Amino acid sequence: MRDEPHGTMHGWIWRRNLLPFVETIAYLVRYELDPSRLTAGVDGSDADDDRWFTLELDGQTRVELHFAAAEDSVLVDVELDGNDERFEVRAALLLDVCSRYQLTPQAT
Fold first, then answer.
1. What confidence score (pLDDT) does residue 1 get?
2. Residues 40-66, buried b or exposed e (16+ Cβ, 10 A)?
3. Beta-bridge mates of residue 75
4. What per-residue confidence (pLDDT) applies to 107?
5. What is the mean pLDDT, run by run of 10 residues, along the chain of 108 residues?
6. What's the pLDDT at 30?
7. Helix (H) or strand (E) holding 10
8. Residue 5's pLDDT is what?
9. Three-state secondary structure along 30-54?
10. Directed axis angle between helix 18-29 and helix 85-100, to 10°?
11. Are the C-beta atoms of residues 64 and 91 closer than 8 Å to each other?
């Protein structure tokens, strides 16, 4: 039995994976992301002081992302508006990958 409603996930990611994580979520919901707003908001958050930054992605589906920065990681809460099981599975997998591996940009 679930304690959280569908589409609610909690976890953490490596700080260096923040932009790829949010870019991918934005792509999935068809939202145009402003990376400078994301970086500034997360830089102003603090997990130790329970100070969170919320980013709403109001695309094809509405998603709220909540972040609290720690040393080398970022705590993440993802809240999906509605019931989209495919998105939920993709977001959970992305959260898992971004906490297990440190992603690197593609060489150009």
1. 29
2. ebbeebebeeeebbebebebebebbbe
3. 12, 68
4. 59
5. 60 94 94 92 95 94 94 91 83 94 76
6. 93
7. strand 8-14
8. 52
9. CCCCCHHHHHHHHHCCECCCCECEE
10. 170
11. no
pLDDT of residue 60: 87
Can you give the length of the chain in residues? 108
Give the amino acid at 94.
Answer: L
DSSP states of 62-78: EEEEEEEE-SSEEEEEE
Location of structure tokens 């997360």: 42
51 vs 104: CA distance, rounded Å? 28
CA dist 3 and 25 (Å) reads 23
Q: What pLDDT, on a 0 to 100 scale, did the predictor assign at position 80?
A: 83
What separation in angstroms does the CA of 96 have from each of 12, 16, 17? Answer: 8, 14, 11
